[in-house]
Design a protein that fits this description.
Layout lengths: L1 H11 L16 H11 L1 H22 L4 E15 L7 E19 L1 H68 L5 H36 L23 H11 L1 H21 L5 E12 L9 E12 L7 H67 L5 H35 L5 H8 L4
Antiparallel strand pairs: 1-2, 2-3, 3-4
Helix pairs in contact: 1-5, 2-4, 3-4, 4-5, 4-7, 4-9, 6-8, 7-8, 8-9
Length: 442
């Protein structure tokens, strides 16, 4: 098991050692996004669902357009004809028939409702696809920064383990001099074991997050571009929360899809109610027949006809009323789901808006803390040279710096995700936003 972990971990972070070597390359955020557009299973499923949904417009329109059909039939007939008091006669003959028929609906409420429903279904599939296109961007960014954060977590766990290893050495020296106790040694050993377990857990978490990203992009990711050291968070756009909420209610793709679902169900009601309404069609036909019956042997007919057909439903056993009530219930369900989606979108928007607003000052504060931590590490190194501090003090300072750097990276990741989620909630997340965020990774 440890061998497998080592191999997987080498794929996830071992290549990081090569990034400084000749010919090394890293996967950038835009590369991961473009790969996901080709390979992410959920996105591919949404793409083909949209391709299928586009056909609903044509399927719905077909009921309003003319239909043309042709039929050809023929057969060999054998007839015995008895006409009293004449003797029975026997005839063998071949009959043929050819019919060409044109039908154009004039009044058909069912076909009209199907056409409107098909248009709405086609639009809904397109909206759902655009929503999935935003979601794949968020999945890529979320998985990408998750791998980087797990790398930071692993670095912190390794730093803490190294601190306890050094503390063990100090305890051993002090015990050998008679200045330490076995209790101190056992306590440090216990903490070291916990730290070792934390390192193994961090390695497993990194492997899992790397595997998740690989599943989205469709292959090994190798080394990822880290955050640029010159990261500068931009202040939130000069829009109030109410303005963002208005944009979200108008443009949010999930809300729009649910709103279209209400309209689709309304057309379903109209379609079912059409079972009570008459239908009027105009028909035209051209037929040609030869030896159509025993009385017309060797006689050919050519018939041209133009007319109309009215179908008036009278009673269908209550099926029309039941189907209409069923469709009404479906519409009310769609309305409830629409309101649920609006509430969900508003809640998520509030979270993302507040997250984005708080990320900027948090990043600034942690950036200052990192600079202070670096100064502390330098000062501790100087104190060790002067004999005032020991290596354990330096490891403590480095461990604290690692923790602060991890927290700073997490705050930056949260800022990036909150920015993209806010744009997605308002239906405004585009590839240009991804390119803008990708600039933070070098």
């Amino acid at each position: 098991m440890s061998t497998l972990r080592s191999k997987l971990l080498a794929q996830a972070i071992g290549a990081a050692c090569l990034v400084h070597g000749a010919g090394a390359s890293a996967m950038g955020l835009m590369q991961a996004y473009e790969a996901a557009l080709k390979n992410d299973p959920a996105y591919r499923a949404a793409f083909y669902a949209n391709e299928s949904g586009k056909e609903n417009r044509i399927l719905g329109r077909a009921g309003l357009l003319p239909s043309l059909s042709a039929s050809v039939s023929g057969g060999r007939n054998s007839s015995d004809i008895t006409r009293s008091p004449s003797p029975t006669t026997h005839d063998d003959y071949t009959s043929k028939s050819q019919v060409l028929q044109l039908r154009q609906t004039v009044v058909n409420f069912d076909a009209l409702a199907r056409y409107k429903q098909g248009v709405l279904q086609s639009e809904a599939s397109g909206t759902a696809f655009l929503s999935e296109k935003q979601q794949v961007a968020l999945r890529v960014v979320g998985a990408y920064v998750e791998v980087l954060f797990k790398q930071d977590q692993l670095a912190v766990a390794q730093s803490e383990r190294d601190t306890y290893l050094e503390r063990m050495k100090v305890n051993d020296r002090m015990f050998a001099k008679g200045e330490g106790t076995r209790t101190d040694m056992l306590e440090t050993r216990a903490r070291l074991d916990v730290a070792e377990a934390a390192v193994l857990e961090a390695q497993d978490n990194l492997i899992a997050s790397t595997t998740t990203l690989e599943g989205i992009v469709g292959g090994p990711v190798g080394v990822l571009d880290p955050l640029t050291p010159h990261f500068q968070a931009r202040p939130i756009e000069a829009r109030s929360f109410e303005e963002w909420k208005r944009l979200a209610l108008e443009n949010n793709y999930e809300v729009r899809t649910r709103r279209l679902a209400v309209d689709i169900n309304q057309q379903e009601i109209n379609k079912q109610r059409a079972g009570h309404y008459p239908r009027l069609d105009v028909t035209a036909s051209l037929s040609k027949s030869l030896s159509e019956s025993v009385t017309t042997i060797d006689t050919e007919y050519k018939t041209r006809s133009v007319g109309f057909q009215v179908n008036i439903p009278l009673y269908a056993g209550g099926a029309v009323n039941a189907a209409t009530r069923q469709a009404v219930a479906g519409r009310e369900k769609a309305k409830a789901e629409l309101q649920s989606e609006i509430d969900k979108a508003s809640l998520e928007l509030r979270k993302d808006y507040d997250q984005l607003a708080s990320s900027v000052p948090r990043i600034e504060a942690l950036s200052k803390a990192v600079e202070s931590g670096k100064l502390l590490v330098v000062a501790t190194e100087q104190s060790i040279k002067g004999g005032v501090r020991i290596n354990l003090d330096l490891l403590d300072a480095q461990r604290q710096l690692s923790v602060t750097q991890r927290d700073l990276s997490q705050a930056r990741y949260s800022y990036i995700l909150a920015y993209l989620k806010l744009r997605a909630a308002a239906g405004q997340l585009e590839a240009s936003d991804m390119r803008e965020m990708a600039a933070y990774f070098r």
